[in-house]
Amino acid sequence: MMDRRIACFILVLWNCLAYCTFAQSNQVMIIASAGPSNSTLLSDYYNGKQTGLSLLLRNDSRQPLVQGYLRINIEGQGVKLQTGSYAIFPSIDIMEGSTVNLGPQELAVYFKPQYLQGSIGFGVNQPNVFPEGFYQFCFEFLEKNTNRVIGSLECVQANLAYSEPVDLILPEQGKTIAFSSAQSLTFQWNPRHVNIENSEYIVTLVELNTSDKVTESAFAKAKQVYIAKMNEVKFVYNRDKPALLKGKKYAWRVQASAATSNAEKEPMNHEGYSEIHWFLLD
């Protein structure tokens, strides 16, 4: 009988300890979210440029104020990074029953290379570039003075993808254009990458036979009419440029490139080359 009482007491004590430990480690609720597509450049994260990841922290304890910092862990595609034990961060202060939202600017400090340890499998022969794919971004909240975990591990899956080339807009694909318009023909495209403010575009226009199919190989062998490098996403093909001929078929494409504030080249699919569009002058 006594053994049963002792066993029951131990079981109750164990449950109480487990509950107390769980309660202490869950004083701060963490809700993590990620956008559908996120940058593959580590510098975009520690510069606060990425817009995909965000956190909501809530003080669910009975303490009037909780102070602490985050610990992060990133895994996927051969990459394994985590916050170093030596890292020191600004305090995040959360009043009782209140919430704190952390966006790209607030999270940036946690992605600084000097605060991360582990390995990052680099892609495109360029340092600080995550290979494309899905990653787990996990977050814990640690108390400022004790370094105890008071916000349990919360993870979110994020897709890290290279930027896409530009979309060609004008002239419209496969359109027959009046020859009279050739003296003032607008070319325009739409960027789809992140670092647009540091972008450069190379526009190439070639002449084809009307019977030619528009393929990569045909474009490469065609007579080059015009090539230019620019920062704008629009220009007018006017009398100052080589004359276009009536009855001819023309094809064009744009190669985009962009750099971060650290002069890193932004990774792009297809080496930044857009699709090839064509038009006919009649």
Number of domains: 2
Overall number of strands:
17
Q: How much is the average pLDDT?
A: 87
Order of helical and strand elements: HEHEEEEEHEEEEEEEHEEEE
The gyration radius over C-alpha positions equals 28 Å
Secondary structure layout:
Blueprint: H1 2-25, E1 28-33, H2 42-46, E2 54-59, E3 65-76, E4 79-83, E5 92-95, E6 99-102, H3 104-107, E7 116-119, E8 133-143, E9 149-160, E10 167-170, E11 175-177, E12 185-190, E13 199-208, H4 216-221, E14 223-230, E15 234-237, E16 249-258, E17 277-281
Core attributes:
282 residues; mainly beta; Immunoglobulin-like; 2 domains; 6-stranded antiparallel beta sheet; 5-stranded mixed beta sheet; 4 helices; 14% helix; elongated
Give an overview in words.
The protein has 282 residues and is mainly beta. The protein folds into 2 domains: 2-160, Immunoglobulin-like, CATH 2.60.40.3880; 167-281, Immunoglobulin-like (Sandwich). It has 4 helices and 17 strands. It has helices spanning 2-25, 42-46, 104-107, 216-221; strands at 28-33, 54-59, 65-76, 79-83, 92-95, 99-102, 116-119, 133-143, 149-160, 167-170, 175-177, 185-190, 199-208, 223-230, 234-237, 249-258, 277-281. The strands form 4 sheets. Strands 3, 4, 5, 7, 8 and 9 form a 6-stranded antiparallel sheet that branches. It has a 5-stranded mixed sheet with strand order 11-17-16-13-14. A 3-stranded antiparallel sheet has the order 1-2-6. The chain is elongated and about 80 Å long. Mean pLDDT is 87; it is low at 4-24.
